[in-house]
## 1
Amino acid sequence: PSASQLPLKEGIDMGDATFKGKIVLITGSAKGIGRSVAEMLASAVAMVVLVDVDPSGRAVADYISKSGGAADFVKADLGDTAQVEGIIPLVMARHGTIDILVNNAIRCPIKSLVEMEQAEFDAVMQVNFRSAVQLTRKTLTVMTGKRRGVILNILSTAGAKPPEVGGAYLSACAASKGALAAFTLSTAAEV
């Protein structure tokens, strides 16, 4: 099948968006929302670069390619700042540019703040917030040079729910995604 024949979820309307030939980097793309975004954009003939610590991301990239889309996979642990720092240079070497960055990766342990070790809290902040900051900073240098680009930060409502409907025990996730929301608004005002 061609890229436009990749199976899309019902109800997705791409509108007038044009993604043909765009290089799209998506973190946390081995499954869930990230995988769905990768498949959708590949069906719109974008070149999707899947970034995930989960090696099954390679199978997702292979599936997209065998289905007529264009995909690449970068295995990287967003919990490791050195690996995060290497992602953008690697993608630039392989594809020459980045047109769209989707910061989608999430780590969300369900634990009380008292039970959570500081190292685990810090790991959540690294994956959910600091890696997005690192990738955004490096990607902005590419995008501002060509005066165009899109950065999409995927947030979570899980931490914003009142405790009576499931928001308890998500302090690390809530803090990291709340920080990402504030960072997004401030950065958007800068560029």
Note: Confidence is low (pLDDT under 50) at residues 1-5, 8-12.
## 2
Amino acid sequence: VGKQGIAEGRMEFMSVSDAGSWDDNYHSPAPPLLVDDELWIYSRGTTLPEEQPDPAISSYGLANLRRDGFVSRNAGDQPGTIETRPLTLENRNHRLLVNAEIGEGGSLKVALRHADGNVLDGYSLAECDAVAGDVLAAPVTWGDHDFMDLDSGTPLRLTFELKNAKFYSFWTEPVPEPGTITIVQHVGDNN
């Protein structure tokens, strides 16, 4: 990315630095690495014009970003909603997880709806336990429902209600069968 600018309608993600900095004219970020719950983005930069980069006088930097932190949907004091298109889960018993920064007095709630828009019994916004705080992988629960016990192949929509929150991402994970051992290791784990 050099000083030539950015495409119309797009926001700049990693801009070059101020004059006199190690990357004030050009930098070239590498693909991000997931390390624990952060994205690490290494970048080579130079003060030379983009057309004349010289690796011999380049510098290297590291940018850190929360997991999935490239973009967020934000809501202030007035709650706002986001609804997905119909989604289909391949297996029964999925847990829903969210990544969000939720401010003081804020919350994130989720309702599950049939593809036609009707709410599934037990999975309304009113029955959802509010998620709060700065969370990277918080499970969403509805009272005594800590996972989505749905028939495989059932299309559904998720309606997210946000208040004083930045919502980054959501995903589902199958709930392991009783007696199953799951081992997960990420880059950066010391085990």
Note: The two ends are 37 Å apart (CA to CA).
## 3
Amino acid sequence: NGKASFTVDGGTVSVGAVTVGRSASSSGRLTIESGTFASGGNQLRIGERGSAVFTMNGGSLTANIALELNGSSESTSEDTMFIFNGGRITVGQINTKTTLATATMIWNGGVLSCNGQADFWGGIFPASEYINVKVLGGGAIYETAAGRETKSETIAQPLSGIGSFTKRGGGTLNLTGALDLKGGFKVAGRN
């Protein structure tokens, strides 16, 4: 219970499974400015039953299986937010465990990549109307991870906003949700 915050600004942080905003009366904030944050456990949960904000401005994040927004079937928090302004995130998927609340993802720069779990889980964003994805002027970049160039991956989430969506690298990316991006779509080689 209570409030907590954790900021990574350089160096490397390696942890097991992590939950920010675990109990109903708690709130938490995780910020990555630079450096490396590696969650070796099954997931990084942002908002289990409490409210939570995860902001990524730079650096890198790796989670073995999932980045979960509202990571409990009992979560009712409408305050769970993921603000992706820069850096690189490599995860198996981004998901939610609840139908009782909607989490928000603001994608305003940064590179998202799948680490190899998407075939098992059914896509980097499983179909769900409970994660609201807004793409701002910094845009959204999805890059096929090395070794996955022959795989087909899916983002089933609706994407909307003023920004653009760029797909980099080989392989196939299926965008199956509703799309309303004023900045359009681009396909580019790997950087």
Note: The CA atoms of residues 92 and 115 lie 5 Å apart.
## 4
Amino acid sequence: AGNGYVASNHYIFDQATGTQAVPGSSANLPYNLGDITIRSNAQAGGTITTNGLRIDGSTGRFALNGNTVNVSGPFATSGSGVLVSTIPADALLITGNATFDGGDETGLLTAGAIRITGNMTQSATNSPNSFRASGTHSAILSGTGTTQIAFATAGSRFQNLLVDMPGGTAAVTAGSVIVGGNLQVNQGRLA
């Protein structure tokens, strides 16, 4: 069932060489029982639904590869881990909180979209550019209530930011939020 292994309700991908394909949810892997951890070079092999997604380690790199990845809990990059979203069809849908504290994302978030329902935090433990979108990449904040946005460094930024929070507020709680392209508030407010 794929080229990863299950440990403590986590499906772990950590192949030493090459690029691992993370099979789509139709492969009946136990993603819905726990989380996915990417510790090597990997790419989505179809639509994926999981409770949590972490990209970490010294070689963690996960390409959405034109697919949709649904995360019903937390998403995080750490160590040197990076997310790759370079195809317009790339979609990362995060129902929980998103933490970008991994490697340098410069040139890796250039197309597609990330939708975040929870809070978004950018930290700089390993890189001041741990969230640096460009090109046509979009981030959509779509929670209800208050969504907190915290940026540790000015090197990280959104390219396009859409606030679509009926009755909600996207509140900047730390740092400055930089938008390199378009800022649009459809519903809710940005404070």
Note: Residues 109 and 127 are 15 Å apart (CA to CA).
